[in-house]
Every structure is written in C-alpha cells, then in structure tokens.
Amino acid sequence: ALPGHLLRGLLPLLTIFHLERAEDAARRAGLSTQPIWRKLWDDVMKTRPPNSESITCWRKKFLETFFSNVLHGVLDVSSDWRLHDRHFSPLLHSSPHVSQLTLCNMLQGAVELTAEHNHKVLENLAGSLRILRFQHLLSCDQSIRRSLVLLLHRLIHHGSVSQVSMCSWPVPDTVLLVLILTMSAGFWRSGNALAYHGSPCGLCREEDKAQSQESAEEGAERGCNAEQEGSGGENQKRSPKEADACMTSVRSGPMSPPLQNQACEETSSEVPCDDTSIQGSSSPRSNSEQLSCHPIPRKTRRWQKPAVGRKRRCLRRSRGHCADPEDLYDFVFTVAREDNSGLLDKTRTTEGENTENWSSSSSGSPCTGHAGYKKRGGPAGTLSLKAAHRFRSVSTLELFSIPLTGETCRTLSNLLSSWVSLENLVLSYNGLNANISCILSGLRALSRHPECRFRVLRVSDMFSHMPCMELVRCVLSTLPQLHTLSVSFDLKNQLEGSRPEASPSCSEAEIPESCLEVLEIRFPREPLHAAFLLPVLKASKSLQQLSLDSATLPCPQELGLLLEVLKECTPNLKKLSFHDVNLAEHQKEVLLLLQGPGLQEITFSFCRLFESSTAEFLSEIINAVKRNSSLKSLKLPGNRLGNHRLIALADIFSEDSSSSLCQLDVSSNCIKPDGLLEFTKKLEGHIQQRGGQLPFTHLRLFQNWLDQDAETAQEALRRLKAVCSVVNDAWDSSQAFADYISVM
C-alpha cells in the first residue's frame, strides 16, 4: 500500500525474496522491476548473457540462471546480501521460474533434485520446465542412474518437459544414452517399479486406480450384456438386484476367461505383452498394423483388470498370462544383434505388409548386446523387458556431437517408429554415415501412424554419406508431410570411392507432393545443379524459405536456371539465402533477385558480391532495392562493403524511394567509425526530407572495425540509436586483417 515514489526508492534495497513478493505491488503502481533485476544480473553473475538484446524478462532470466548456478554449486548465496535471507530457499523459490535446465558431468544435479528434502522443488519443476539438456555427461553408477530415472519420470512422464537435448558426449555410455532416449520416448517400467523414497509413484498409482475402475465397470457391463444375449428371454427379465450382483462379482473377483481373452484382443499396441507371442506366431502383424490403434476409446487401451486383488499388469504378463501378437516390446525395443556381416536384416515391402523384420539373437532374447538391455539382472536404470509401459513423451529431440553406433541407431529407429508426439528431430555430428537409412526407416514407420505429428528434421555431420540432393530426395520421398528440412555437411566422404551409388528409389522415383515450407542445404563444396533441385522444388509448392550454403556453381548459366526454376515452381517463396557461394561473376542474377516482387528477405552472406564489381553495380543494387516495395530485409554480411559502399547504401531511403526495407545487416564488412558516422548523417538527412517517416528499424553491425576510434564510434552509435535499433558487439579488429587475407 506504499505510495509509488516510496516504493520506487524501496525496491533496490530489497533482497530477492522480498523483491519477488513486491512484484505485484510494483506492477499495480506502474513500476517496472526490470532495471533492478538487470543490475542484479550484472552484480551477481558478472557476465554478459548471450543474445541479451532478445531478453524480455530479466527477472525470469536471473532466477533461472540463479537456480542452475546454485544447483551445480557455482554460486555462493552468501556472496551478496541480496541473495541471503532466512526466509529464502534458493532452489525452492526460484524453481517456478525455470523453463530450461542443463544437467552436466556426473549428473549431480539429478541426485540433488530427487533428494527427499527437494521434493517440493521437483514438483515445481514438473510444472514449469519445458527444456531439459544434458551436456558433457560421464558414466555414472547405479545409484545416480536411479536418481536420473526418477527425475525423468517426474519431469517427462508426469511433467511438462517437451524438449530433450543432449550434446558434447564424445564417448557416450550406451546404457545411459539409451535410458534417456527410451524415457524421452515415453517408455519405461510401470509406476510401482518407480519408487520415490521407498513409495511407488503416486501419480502412476492414482492413474492406474482410476483406469482399473473404469476398465472393470466396462468389462462388467460387457460381460453382463453378453450373458443376457446368450441366455434368452428369461435372462432379459433379470431383476436389478441380480444385475448389481453381476457387477459386484466382477469388481471383487478375477476376470472370467472370456473377459481375459477379450482384454487381450482389445489391448492397443501401446501396452507390452509376453515377448514369445511374436516369435511363436506364424504370421506376425506388420509394423504399420502394430503402430495403428484399435478403434476403442483411449481409456480402454490399457490392460483391463479389476481394481481389487491384482498385481501390476507388467508382472502378470511377465509370467505368461497373456500372449498378445501385438507385443509392444518386440516392436519398439528389439535391437538386432549384429551377425558376422554386421547388417540389419530388412525386408521392404509395400505398405500394409511387413515393413521391416528386425532380427533377434539366436538365444531367442529380443534385446541383447550393446544397448544394455537384458532379461534379468540388467544394470540399474535399464528397462526390464517385461515391464515396458507407455507414458507421456517429448515433442523435440536434439542430439549434438554424440557418436551413434549402428546398435544405437537401430534402438533409436525402433523408438522413432511409434513416437507419435515427436515433432522435431535434430541430429548433429553423430557420425551416422550409412546409418542415416536406419533412422529414415524408423521415421517412415512413424509417418504412417494416423496420429503422427512429425514436421521438422535437421541432419548435419562432418562427412556426407551420399550427395546432398540425393539425401534430400530420399527424405522427401519418405516424409512428404515435413514442413522443415535442413541437411548440412562439412566435407565429402573421406574416400570418395566409398560413397554408395545412387539409389534407384531416391534418384529415379518421382517425389510426391510435399508440405515443405523451409529447405536448408549446406553442400560439402558440391556443385549445385539446377536440374537436381528441380524435382524437389516442383514437389514443394508451399516452399517459403530456401537456403543454399557452400555450393559451387559449375557454370555461369546454373544460377540463371535456378532463378527460372524458383520463379516457376515456388510462387510462395518469401526468404532466399545464399551463404559462401561465389557470386562475383553473377551480377545480372543478383539484380534479378533484388528486383523480384515476391521475396521479403534476401541474404547474400560471404558471397564476394563486390570482389570485382564497379561503382555502377552498386548503383544498380541501390536502385533495385529502392523500387522493390515487397523487400523487408536485406542481409549483406561479409561482402567487403567498406566505408564508401555503406555510405552509398543510405540512398536506399532517399525521398524518391518506394522501398519498405526494415532490416539491414552489414556485419563483417570492414566498416570503420568515420564511415559509420557519415552513413548516420546521410540517413538523418533522408529522414528530414521524408518528414520523419522511415520504415528502417534494425541495423546489424557485428564484427566491424569500430574499435579503431572509440569516440567517433560512440557518437555514430548514439545518433543511429535515435533512428533505429542497432545491434553490435565489442569486437577486437586486430584479427581482422588476417581474416580479410584468408578469404581473398
């Protein structure tokens, strides 16, 4: 109830505990606490956060980073009086603000969060956390793995985590890696096996109790109806008391054999059954059939059992009480043991038949080998074969710099094949090589699922196993529902002769019409042939964004052919980007692009535009942009603009211009402070001529030579910021000359 002027003076004197409590009062008084939280960041964290210009809430940013630093023991709360308060529990009070969390090394954070005294902290994270990252992981013992299982079960299966990312794991522990993948996909043992400090998972128990009661009631009703239909008119006249007795007998006693069989038949593929069913079946169902769901309500998909006097479904099934031919485990978790040839036994047929048959070991165990799964006595934290259960799963999976073996790829492929919640998959520097086909196989099976939501695939690696365009065609032929596809490779295969020959299925088959909206290709210095790109663009009528990186143009006509293809096949294209593509000899095509009426964003990044150009070419660029009313963003980083060309670019906004350009990127262009100041003065003159109206709102100036005259640079930036938003950095230009020489 303090007056606004008193509250404004009081806020900077509060600890973060009381500052949090005063947040609502400050908002009601029309006061912002953002400057206080920003100062707290500077005083406590003492670092500049990445992308600081995009931070909209410093309160959340501070408390989220504060939580992580306290959890990992890198911040002492006694180091600043504002952090130290007897009412303040660092982890408890900051946890509701945490939407991203990174766990590192030996997973000490997982152990701490699952400790009994942090139970409330974990409950808060289950509601707030969206992104869970693992970085620089090391092998850990069984007790730590147990803590990780509890953490993942609470945050993913019964929480709000939608994205799991793993990065920088040069020698991954296969058991730990597969554990994280499996639980991210929503598979693990049943709730009673996930004891939390000696007690079974309460959320699983409540869920099972409710579903057991529903299943029992529906089973009883179904049994009573069947008995009525089979007993003639006398049974149709049964009294209500007798009907109630029938319902009571089903609730209190075990199922009759007919009901047990019916439950087995109606169980969906999401529930595991005994693994002998598939091995003993003479005609196993196809993968697509296993992926499909039976037309029954969701609440009846699970194993139907009475509410009283039963053990967990997983325990019953492990004893062979049900032999369902749709054994979930055999479909999802079977990992082939590599035979002498090391090849995966695959049989590809048409849709509706067996799509893939994964080979099992000779011993009959469907899961052995490097994945760390065993029937009995497996390491703590690994999945029991007979206890697989389906929980909530994440929608985004990212794997950065983690080598994936053939065995791990097959495990991931099996998980992907029924991961219906998955929308985004990022595989970066995993050494996939030929195993990319195994991943695509799992995604193909997923795409046939009626509930599939998969839309984004990003694959990048050091070496390309096949030409980029062939891989793009394979992916689009397999996954026509994709909205975003990014393919990126640094180098061609070390042994050029080791590349496989073009696959007829990818090179000759016509690509079905796709939903693709974004296509990004980074070529390993491969030639860009418009003829190879043509089938992809023809099938992608919805394409809105195209990015071509590090391609070589085999002849001057190729870029012209590409522009013709783009004009003909992609009427909805809005963004076009070229990076590290030598366009020095393609001035005509560059001008045609800038004159195009449909494009809203054009990027020429490190394309040597002005390497051998004349002043006339620059003038033509300026005139083309001035006449283009649809172009909103022009990005020209790394093209050696220099001072004089930057100053000339200010004429884009002259009084006679019809340009709608809002954003201009001139990063890495050898711009000096005096040139920036002259650009600013010229821009101010155009604004005055136009009566203060200018569409220009953003200027990016990263990695220019602004440190050579700090005073002039500060004046230029001060005046520029009165005109538009300026993004720059404190870059050391002492290395600029070496960088300049390296790209000449």
TrEMBL record:
Keywords: Leucine-rich repeat, Phosphoprotein, Repeat, Signal, Ubl conjugation pathway. Residues 355-365 have a biased composition (Low complexity). GO terms for cellular component: cytoplasm; nucleus. Residues 235-244 have a biased composition (Basic and acidic residues). It comes from the Eukaryota. Residues 258-291 have a biased composition (Polar residues). Residues 296-308 have a biased composition (Basic residues). This is Leucine-rich repeat-containing protein 41. SUPFAM superfamilies: RNI-like. It comes from Peucedramus taeniatus. The gene is Lrrc41. Transmembrane segments: none annotated.
